[in-house]
Hints:
The chain has six helices and twelve strands. Strands 3, 4, 5, 6, 7, 8, 9, 10, 11 and 12 form a ten-stranded mixed β-sheet that branches. It has a two-stranded antiparallel sheet with strand order 1-2.
Amino acid sequence: MKLNIRFSRDCSSDGTNTVSEHATTAPPTTRYLIYFQYFGTKYSGVKAVPPTQAVLGVQNYLEKAAERLRPSAPIKFVVSSRTDSGVHALCNTAHVDIERKPGRPPFSENILVKSLNQFLKSEAIRILGVRRVPETFHARFSALSRTYVYRVATGCSYPFEMPVFEQNLCWATCRGHLNPTAMREAAVFLVGSHDFSTFRSANDEQPARSPFRTLMRAEIRPSSGFFLHHSQDRELRFWELEFQGQSFLYKQVRRMAGVLVAVGQNRLQPHYVKGLLEARDLMAYPPNTIAPAHGLFLKEVEYREDDLETGTTEAELQPSCLDHRPLEEC
């Protein structure tokens, strides 16, 4: 708990000045880690944008929902992983600091999940879980790794032949089936620590950010797809490309996925990927190869358990109104 200390001068009975100390308690602030998912098609990305824009970010809606918690100060979501327009999240994370009026206990994790989901019910955004964390925890900088999955469909001649349940959820390549053996051979070159300059896209942060990244894992595997057993098209096949690393450059995952798919289509040879890494030049990236946004999913953000521990139990938070009273009464 923080103390605001102020000093004032008083006159004692003998006429001398004395300094007295008055301590006022600052409103209690609690930090939480929020796990959330979203269907990215209708949003400008996860990052908040000016409210005058026609299409808003996921963060805009999260913070608007948080306003209805009636906090003492505005709540800002510090998101762990930025995703672009059209990119989805099975699980993204953010930390928030919630300040309540003096005398009010911190919100329980259960209350926050239920209340935020109630306020977000008209959006394609869901709160998966909430955990109280230490004030030293940071959703972005405390992350051990991030895992992305890119979904690819083959076996259709045109994108409109895709099942309606798969629209905007995978990349329909329409170039025949993939060669997974060649793709796995190419993926070996990407794993490890490299200068990924060729696999980044230009943006405002480019000069300030190092191009060196470590790709811990790259996997190519067949997938069942959504409701595939109900499809009449027996030629339709689905693939998942999964990448794990501590952090990624802007559009790095989509550029890696695009090159691996090109290898799988025999448009590029596996060893070509090694040459792209050695070029260290974003202009060396083959044109019209980057994978579209709508096939990409942020799957998971991993943290060290010790970084999440506060020593506070759920029963110590809002013990009198976990499930029994409306939010405005808690």
